[in-house]
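**Paired protein data**
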Amino acid sequence: MRHLAAYLLLQIGGNASPSAADIKKVLGAVGIEADDERLEKLISELEGKDINQLIAEGSAKLASVPSGGAVASSGGAAGAPAAAAAEEKKEEEKKEEKEESDDDMGFGLFD
């Protein structure tokens, strides 16, 4: 991921086709060591391709993947009252325990 981020930074900066040396220089500037094998694979896969078109294609593919976000958010809203009720029950239990401890007024049966 760091190699791709450096590649994109170089492209945004005006370098239409960054080389492995360019990417190593960017990564080295922030103290990250480049992995030569992954870097060469990235360069070979992106060579001659328009990065904006690749991003658009990837976004289209991700849009068709069901993420379940809508279900989780609606379920979370329905679960909020139940969580509040459970919290109130816990508070009531704590209050009851506190009251029971006050019954002996600090004196134990065998003190």
Notes: The chain has a mean pLDDT of 78. Residues 69-102 form the longest helix (34 residues). Helices lie at 2-12, 20-29, 36-46, 51-63, 69-102.
